[in-house]
């Protein structure tokens, strides 16, 4: 007899029942629902994004703890660390990987971002800064997040264009980390830095796409993928509000 049935029979006959430990076979009415209430998953994702943003000022520092980059290894470690510690870059690359995994060339399209990102970094190192880089980076989160949220599949041409365009500006921001080092950096440091930047971001993009498919997303319209896009777009909106907050407050109070 099922334990739940025995318990009900004992209660009806007035028998006292001691403390029961049911590791399994619980009554069906005691089993928690398998599906979260509507919207809970989205709220959790946005909460995680918000916490990440709150933590980013503390984490977005030099991966070497402020020490100057002097060797190839220093450059490599710094290149690996910067995209991970900079949540605006991390969220973009992850969303790009999700968008790329549903294109006809899931391995090629993220490479367009990597190539353009390295070029932007090199330009900044050479003293050529792209205008409004930080603003365009925020815009990139809104655009890539919106693309993934829409559930539409990018053509290979459009993916290459979008990824490469924003890659230039993300690279310019990365280049500022080495261009601004007092005394400059040597060639070995630069090579290590570029290798680290390219390798970690390509792995993040491919990994994000792979994870999305493992979670059951068979195409761009899958809810799992679109929730990821919503989170990234939300991060972009948050950062955009931070940018315009100052001018708005000044206009109101001035």
From TrEMBL:
The chain crosses the membrane at residues 45-64, 84-104, 111-130, 136-154, 161-179, 185-211, 223-244. The keyword Secreted does not apply. InterPro entries: HupE_UreJ. Keywords: Membrane, Transmembrane, Transmembrane helix. This is HupE / UreJ protein.
């Amino acid at each position: 007899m099922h334990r739940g049935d025995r318990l009900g029979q004992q209660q009806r006959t007035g028998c006292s029942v001691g403390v029961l430990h049911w590791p399994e076979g619980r009554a069906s009415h005691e089993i928690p629902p398998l599906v979260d209430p509507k919207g809970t998953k989205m709220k959790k994702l946005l909460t995680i994004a918000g916490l990440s943003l709150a933590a980013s000022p503390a984490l977005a520092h030099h991966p070497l703890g402020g020490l100057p980059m002097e060797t190839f290894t220093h450059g490599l470690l710094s290149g690996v660390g910067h995209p991970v510690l900079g949540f605006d870059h991390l969220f973009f690359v992850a969303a790009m990987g999700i968008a790329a995994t549903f294109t006809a060339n899931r391995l090629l399209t993220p490479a367009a971002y990597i190539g353009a990102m390295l070029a932007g970094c090199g330009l900044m190192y050479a003293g050529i800064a792209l205008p409004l880089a930080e603003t365009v980076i925020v815009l990139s989160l809104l655009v890539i997040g919106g693309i993934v949220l829409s559930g539409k599949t990018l053509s290979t041409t459009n993916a290459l264009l979008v990824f490469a365009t924003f890659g230039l500006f993300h690279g310019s921001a990365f280049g500022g980390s080495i261009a601004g080092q007092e005394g400059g950096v040597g060639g070995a440091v630069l090579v290590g830095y570029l290798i680290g930047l390219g390798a970690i971001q390509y792995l993040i993009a491919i990994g994000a796409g792979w994870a999305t498919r493992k979670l059951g997303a068979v195409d761009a319209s899958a809810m799992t993928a679109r929730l990821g896009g919503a989170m990234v777009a939300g991060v972009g909106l948050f950062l955009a509000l931070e940018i315009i907050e100052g001018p708005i407050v000044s206009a109101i109070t001035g």
